[in-house]
Design brief:
The complex is a heterodimer of chains A (569) and B (325). With 569 residues, chain A is an alpha/beta fold. Chain A is built from 19 helices and 26 strands. With 325 residues, chain B is of the alpha/beta class. Helix content of chain B is 47%, strand content 14%. Chain B contains eleven helices and nine strands. The chains are: A alpha/beta (569), B alpha/beta (325).
Chain lengths: 569, 325
C-alpha cells in the first residue's frame, strides 16, 4: 500500500493550477472553469473559517444538484471541514436528524432549509474569489460524513478520511482507465457516495463534470436530450435507474460504470450491443469502505455465473477482500474511521480494521468475487432456509424479466417488471430450477419497480405496496361475464397480472385517478353508473359486479318494436 | 336461479319487469308471457320486489358521501376535499384516525364527469347539507375541509346549524381564507414568481459573454419546450380534464365567497406556525382554536404520509372525549 500524502482538495487545486481555463463543472448551461471553481471555493472557505469551521468539523451541504454542489464540497474541504451531504428532497424530519446527529453548526444551502442550524450560508447570494486560505489539513482528517440507512435503526454517519477517498480516487482512475480531459455525468443523489466515482476523478484529471438536474434524472426523455447535445464519456449509474430510462439514448461514449446493485448478465449483453465501443464496469462496495472496492470489466467473452448476475470483480489497489464464511469482508485503505458518535456500533462492524459487509459472495475461477445476495435476505419459509437473492437471480435469468425483487410477507411475493410478463410462464420457469417452496405463490408484475433516491430498488416501498393479494393461493376466478370484465378492467389499471374477485382493490393499490378511470370504464362498458361511494362500500370485483348487475336490472327500458302486452303482477 | 339472475334472463328475452309505485309491472312481446312464465313471476313476486327495491336504493343513494372509514362510535366526520374534489386527500388521515372514527369524504358534483361542477359555495354547501342529512339524519356532525374545501365546509357547517342540526366542530385543515383565492391575490403570487424568474435570468445573462448568452437562452428554451410537451401529454387524459374543470369551478366559487360570522366551535389545523393565510378565519370565527404541524411542513402534503399521523394526533387532542352521547 502506498501511503497517501495529499488531501483530496489539494489534488483538485493542483489540477486547477495546471488547467485554470478548462471547464470543470457544467450544470444546465452554466459552468465554472477550474480557475473560477478554485478561487470561488477559496472565498467560500474563508467565510466558513470565520464561522468556526476547522479540521474534522462536519459541515452540512443541503443543496439541489447544481454547480453549488461542487463548489460547496470543495470549499468545505479547503476550510478543513467534513462535508455532510443532505438531499433537499429528504423529508424534513430526516434532514433535521442528519443536521443534529452530525453536529454540523454550519449548513451550506441553495434551497429552503427548514431545520434550525447555528449558521446557514446561502449559496444563492454567494459571490467572490480569493486566494487559498491557510489551514493545516492532514490525510487523517475527515473529508466527508455520509449517512447510510440500514435495514434497521436510524441512519448513521460514515466517517471518511482524506486518505480513504484519495486512495479510492487514485485507484479508480487507474482501474477504470480514466484519461485526462474526459467528460463525466453525475446523476446520483448528493446524499450518497455513488456519485464520488465520477465527481472526484473528473476534477483531479482535468475532466468536465456534468451535473445533471433532478428534473432530467427522473425523466428519460429530458436526460436523453441532454446526452444528445452534450457528449458524455463516463457515466456512473445504478442498473435499475438505467433500465428505467432509455438506455439506448443515454449510453456514454467510453465508460459505463454500474454500481449499487446486481446487474443481470443478459441485460449487460444488450447494453454492450447498444454501445460496443463503451467499456462497461461493475463496481461494488459499501459506503463504509469508501464508495467501492471491487471492479469488474465486462470483456468480449461471454461470462456465466451461478446467479446470472455480473461478477463484482477484483479489489482496487490497497484493498483486501476476504470471504469468511461466505461473507464479503473488507480491509485496507478504504476502511472508514467508523460511524460518527457510535463507538459501540463501530466496534461491532469494524472489528480489527475489517468491515463486515453483510453481503454473501463466492470466488470465481479467475479470482473475481460473485455477489450471492444479502445475508439478511435469508428468510425461513415453512422451515426451509431461503435466499431471496437466489429467487431474484432465477427470475432475472428469464429473458423477458427486466427487474425482479422478492420479499417475504405473509408469503413470498415476487415483484417483477415489465407489467406485460405472464405470471404462469414465470412460475413454470422458476419451477424448472428451484424447489417448490422457493417459488413465490404471489407475483406482482409492475411497469417498473420503485427506486430509492440512490436509484436502487426500494425494498421498503415494495414492502409498503399493497399489491399483495390478501388471500393466499390462486386468485378467486370470475364466475360471470360481469366479474370477468371487471377483473380485466382492474388488472389493467392496477398493472397486475390477475385480480381475484374477492381481493380488496385498495389493498392491491387502487388510488384516486385509477378509481375514477375504473368508474368511467365501467360506465361506458355496462351503462351502469357506479359512484366512488359504491367502490368504498364494496371494494372487490365481486361486490362491484353485484352492483353493476343490480343497476342493469333497472335501466330505462328500450323495448323492441312490435306489439307488446303489459301485465300487473 | 336467484331472482337477479332470473330477471337478467327475462331482460335478455325482451321481457321487462319494473316497479311502478307499489306495483310490480311486466311488459313483453305479445305471446311471450307463457302461462308457465306468468306463474313463476307470480311465485317469485316478493323476491323480485326485493331485488328491484335494492337496485332503486342504489340509484337514489347519496352519491356525494364516500365512506373512507365507515365504522366507529365517535361523532362522524364529513370532510370537503381540496379544490380538485378528490376525497382521497383524506385517506391517510381517515386510516390514522382508526376504526372508531367514522370518516366520510364529500365528493362535489362534477368529479365523476357526469354533471357540470357547481359554481357557488352556497350551492355546493346546500348540496352537501342535503346529502349529509339524508345519509346520517340524527347528527351530530364534525364538518371538515381541506385547502379550498375549507370555505365550503365553513358554509356547510353554517347551513347545517341553521337547519337546526348539531355541528360539534368545524375542522379546517390547511385552509386559506377565501380571499387568498381571488384572482388578484393569485396574480400577486404569480407575479412574485415571475419576478424571481426574471431576476435569475438577468443574473445569468450578466455573468456571460454574448455567445454564452445565446447558448444559455437556447438551452432554457429547449427545456421549456420539453416541459410543455410533457404537460400537453398529461392534459390529454380525460379524467384529468374533468378534474381541471372542477378545479377551476371550485377556485372561482371560493374566491367569490364572503364568509359570515360562525359562532360554532372551529378548529384550524395549520401545516406550520409560519403559515399565515388562514389567520383571517378568526375574524369570522371568533372561537377558532389553532393547532400546528412541525416547522417547514408544506400545506400540500400535510394530510399525506408521513404527516397524516401528526394531524390525526392533533385532531384527537382537539376533539377528545367527543363521543356520540
Amino acid at each position: 500500500m502506498v501511503a497517501v500524502t495529499a488531501c483530496l482538495h489539494e489534488l483538485i487545486e493542483a489540477q486547477a493550477a495546471r488547467t485554470p481555463d478548462s471547464p470543470a463543472v457544467r450544470f444546465e448551461g452554466r459552468q465554472f472553469t477550474y480557475g473560477q471553481l478554485d478561487r470561488r471555493a477559496n472565498a467560500l472557505a474563508r467565510r466558513l473559517i470565520t464561522l468556526g469551521v476547522k479540521p474534522d468539523a462536519p459541515v452540512g451541504l443541503y443543496v439541489e444538484r447544481s454547480l453549488d454542489m461542487v463548489l460547496g464540497i470543495l470549499a468545505i474541504l479547503k476550510a478543513g471541514g467534513a462535508y455532510v451531504p443532505i438531499d433537499p428532497a429528504f423529508p424534513a424530519e430526516r434532514v433535521a436528524y442528519m443536521v443534529s446527529d452530525s453536529g454540523a453548526s454550519v449548513v451550506l444551502v441553495n434551497a429552503k432549509l427548514t431545520t434550525p442550524a447555528a449558521h446557514v450560508v446561502n449559496l444563492n447570494g454567494f459571490d467572490g474569489e480569493s486566494e487559498k486560505p491557510a489551514v493545516a489539513v492532514k490525510p487523517e482528517h475527515l473529508a466527508y460524513v455520509i449517512y447510510t440507512s440500514g435495514s434497521t435503526g436510524k441512519p448513521k454517519g460514515v466517517c471518511i478520511e482524506h486518505r480513504n477517498i484519495v486512495n479510492y480516487v487514485q485507484g479508480v482512475i487507474e482501474r477504470l482507465r480514466l484519461e485526462p480531459g474526459m467528460s463525466y455525468a453525475t446523476v446520483s443523489t448528493i446524499a450518497a457516495d455513488l456519485g464520488n466515482t465520477v465527481v472526484f476523478p473528473a476534477l483531479v484529471t482535468g475532466g468536465t463534470l456534468h451535473v445533471i438536474s433532478q428534473e432530467r434524472v427522473e425523466n428519460g426523455g429530458l436526460l436523453a436530450a441532454y446526452f444528445e447535445r452534450e457528449p458524455i464519456d463516463v457515466l456512473k449509474i445504478v442498473p435499475s435507474h438505467l433500465s428505467a430510462l432509455n438506455p439506448e439514448r443515454v449510453m456514454p461514449r467510453k465508460r459505463l460504470i454500474l454500481g449499487g446493485e446486481a446487474s443481470r448478465l443478459d441485460w449487460i449483453e444488450s447494453l454492450r450491443q447498444l454501445a460496443p465501443r463503451c467499456e462497461i464496469y461493475n463496481h461494488y462496495g459499501p459506503s463504509e469502505t469508501t464508495v467501492g472496492v471491487l471492479t469488474y470489466r465486462v470483456g468480449e467473452a461471454p461470462i456465466a455465473t451461478q446467479t446470472g448476475t455480473l461478477p463484482l470483480g477484483k479489489p482496487l489497489p490497497g484493498i483486501e477482500v476476504d470471504l469468511a464464511d461466505g461473507e464479503i469482508q473488507i480491509r485496507g485503505a478504504g476502511v472508514a474511521r467508523g460511524y460518527l458518535n457510535r463507538p459501540e456500533l463501530t466496534a461491532q462492524r469494524f472489528a480489527d480494521g475489517v468491515y463486515r459487509t453483510g453481503d454473501r459472495g463466492r470466488r470465481l475461477a479467475d479470482g473475481s468475487v460473485e455477489f450471492c445476495g444479502r445475508i439478511d435476505h435469508q428468510v425461513k419459509v415453512n422451515g426451509y432456509r431461503v435466499e431471496l437473492g437466489e429467487i431474484e437471480g432465477a427470475l432475472r435469468a428469464h429473458a423477458e424479466v427486466r427487474e425482479a425483487a422478492v420479499l417475504l410477507k405473509e408469503h413470498l411475493v415476487a415483484y417483477v417488471a415489465p407489467r406485460t410478463l405472464e405470471v404462469a410462464k414465470l412460475r413454470e420457469h422458476l419451477a424448472a430450477s428451484l424447489p417448490r417452496y422457493m417459488v413465490p405463490p404471489i407475483f406482482v408484475p409492475l411497469e417498473r419497480l420503485p427506486l430509492t433516491t440512490n436509484g436502487k430498488i426500494d425494498r421498503q416501498a415494495l414492502a409498503m405496496l399493497g399489491a399483495e393479494r390478501p388471500n393466499a393461493g390462486p386468485a378467486a376466478a370470475a364466475r360471470s361475464e360481469t366479474e370477468k370484465a371487471l377483473a380485466e378492467i382492474w388488472a389493467e389499471l392496477l398493472g397486475v397480472a390477475e385480480v381475484g374477485v374477492d381481493d380488496d382493490l385498495f389493498d392491491l393499490g387502487a388510488h384516486s385517478l385509477m378509481a375514477m378511470k375504473a368508474l368511467t370504464q365501467i360506465r361506458d362498458r355496462f351503462n351502469a353508473n357506479l359512484s366512488l361511494r359504491n367502490l368504498f362500500e364494496a371494494p372487490t370485483v365481486a361486490g362491484l359486479a353485484a352492483m353493476v348487475e343490480s343497476l342493469c336490472l333497472i335501466h330505462p327500458k328500450n323495448p323492441s318494436q312490435g306489439e307488446r302486452e303489459e301485465i300487473v303482477l | 336461479m336467484n331472482a337477479a339472475t332470473f330477471l337478467s334472463e327475462l331482460r335478455r328475452r325482451d321481457i321487462e319487469v319494473w316497479l311502478d309505485g307499489g306495483q310490480l309491472r311486466c311488459s313483453a312481446k305479445t305471446g311471450a308471457l307463457t302461462p308457465e312464465l306468468r306463474e313463476e313471476l307470480a311465485r317469485r313476486k316478493q323476491e323480485i320486489v326485493k331485488v328491484l327495491t335494492a337496485a332503486q336504493a342504489l340509484v337514489s343513494q347519496e352519491r356525494a358521501i364516500v365512506p373512507l372509514q365507515a365504522s366507529g362510535s365517535r361523532i362522524p366526520v364529513f370532510a370537503v376535499p381540496g379544490h380538485n374534489g378528490d376525497v382521497f386527500c383524506y385517506r391517510a388521515l381517515a386510516q390514522r384516525l382508526g376504526e372508531d372514527q367514522p370518516f366520510f369524504g364529500l365528493q362535489p358534483p362534477g368529479v365523476d364527469g357526469l354533471e357540470a361542477p357547481l359554481e357557488e359555495v352556497d350551492a355546493l354547501a346546500a348540496c352537501f347539507a342535503r346529502q349529509v342529512r339524508a345519509f346520517w339524519p340524527q347528527g351530530p356532525y364534525v364538518i371538515a375541509g381541506f385547502c379550498a374545501g375549507g370555505a365550503v365546509a365553513f358554509e356547510l357547517a353554517q347551513q347545517l346549524a341553521h337547519e337546526g342540526a348539531t355541528v360539534s366542530a368545524l375542522a379546517l385543515f390547511g385552509s386559506p381564507y377565501p380571499a387568498y383565492f381571488k384572482p388578484a391575490s393569485q396574480l400577486t403570487q404569480r407575479l412574485a414568481q415571475q419576478t424571481a424568474r426574471f431576476a435569475t435570468l438577468t443574473r445569468e445573462l450578466l455573468s456571460r459573454s454574448p455567445g454564452e448568452c445565446r447558448s444559455y437562452l437556447n438551452e432554457r428554451l429547449a427545456r421549456r419546450r420539453e416541459r410543455l410537451a410533457a404537460e400537453r401529454t398529461a392534459l390529454a387524459d380525460p379524467v384529468l380534464q374533468v378534474r381541471a374543470k372542477v378545479e377551476r369551478a371550485t377556485i372561482a366559487a371560493v374566491a367569490a365567497y364572503v364568509p359570515k360570522e360562525y359562532k360554532g366551535r372551529t378548529v384550524l389545523f395549520q401545516p406550520n406556525r409560519q403559515w399565515d393565510v388562514a389567520d383571517r378565519w378568526r375574524s369570522v370565527a371568533p372561537r377558532a382554536e389553532r393547532y400546528f404541524g412541525p416547522d417547514g411542513l408544506a400545506q400540500q402534503v400535510m394530510l399525506r404520509e408521513p404527516n397524516a399521523g401528526t394531524f390525526a394526533e392533533l385532531f384527537r387532542t382537539a376533539l377528545q372525549d367527543w363521543k356520540i352521547p
